[in-house]
């Protein structure tokens, strides 16, 4: 009788917590690919991310930039450096000519860590990096869709070459309503542009 009573209380508590807590969905991650290639819109710069697949090593991933000169089909290695990410970035954008690379998020934990947005210069040197907490207010953070391991904050990101901008649309959700918040960054210095 006592066991049944404890079982009922635990079951009721579990049901109440699942109803009262914000919904989180289970994640399913495949291991990161050993190499992923990103190209600029003009197809004149190619950025290759190489991951060791192990987050316990000092430099788990590196990036290598290759450039193609006009009228030439050969690629020239411009730089190769360790990246800021613990294991691998989830996505990257490359500016035409390879003068900037922007990586997004950490593999297995989108929206967490200090590497949510990372800017690299034409030599692969770190310009600036951001956590999601530094980009959004507390209220906006609460409105980002979540799963068990991640905050799925980025709905779209593009480089506007003519303006020298990175445009990022941040997914926001409350109850059944969905919308996006636009964040702009200056590609030159990686600074967020106030709006």
Overview of the molecule:
It is a single chain. The protein has helices at residues 2-20, 132-135, 138-142, and strands at residues 35-39, 45-51, 61-68, 75-82, 89-94, 101-106, 117-120, 126-130, 154-160, 165-174, 177-186, 192-193. It is mainly β and 195 residues long. It has one domain. Residues 12-24 have low confidence and may be disordered.
Topology:
Layout: H1 2-20, E1 35-39, E2 45-51, E3 61-68, E4 75-82, E5 89-94, E6 101-106, E7 117-120, E8 126-130, H2 132-135, H3 138-142, E9 154-160, E10 165-174, E11 177-186, E12 192-193
Antiparallel strand pairs: 1-2, 2-3, 3-4, 5-6, 6-7, 7-8, 9-10, 10-11, 11-12
Sum this structure up briefly:
The protein is mainly beta and 195 residues long.
Number of helices: 3
Spatially, the strands of the biggest sheet line up as: 1-2-3-4
What number of domains? 1
Instruction: Using the CA coordinates, give the radius of gyration.
Output: 21 Å
**Average pLDDT taken over every residue:** 85
The coarse silhouette is globular
> Which stretches are poorly predicted, pLDDT < 50 over at least 5 residues?
12-24
Helix share, percent:
10-25%
By secondary-structure content and strand pairing, the structural class works out as mainly beta
Distance between the termini: 63 Å
**Biggest beta sheet attributes:** 4 strands, antiparallel
In what range is the share of β-strand residues?
A: 35-45%
């Amino acid at each position: 009788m006592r066991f049944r009573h404890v079982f009922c209380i635990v079951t009721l508590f579990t049901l109440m917590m699942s109803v009262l807590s914000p919904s989180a969905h289970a994640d399913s991650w495949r291991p990161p690919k050993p190499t992923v290639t990103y190209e600029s819109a003009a197809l004149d710069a190619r950025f290759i991310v190489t991951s060791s697949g192990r987050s316990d090593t000092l430099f788990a991933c590196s990036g290598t930039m290759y450039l193609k000169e006009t009228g030439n089909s050969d690629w020239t290695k411009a730089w190769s450096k360790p990246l800021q990410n613990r294991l691998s970035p989830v996505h990257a954008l490359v500016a035409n000519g390879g003068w900037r690379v922007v990586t997004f998020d950490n593999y297995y934990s989108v929206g967490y860590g200090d590497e949510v947005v990372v800017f690299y210069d034409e030599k692969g040197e770190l310009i600036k990096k951001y956590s999601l907490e530094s980009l959004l207010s507390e209220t906006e953070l609460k409105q980002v869709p979540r799963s068990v391991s991640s905050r799925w904050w980025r709905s779209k990101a593009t480089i506007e070459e003519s303006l020298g901008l990175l445009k990022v649309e941040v997914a926001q959700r409350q109850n059944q309503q969905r919308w996006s918040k636009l964040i702009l960054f200056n590609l030159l210095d990686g600074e967020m542009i106030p709006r």
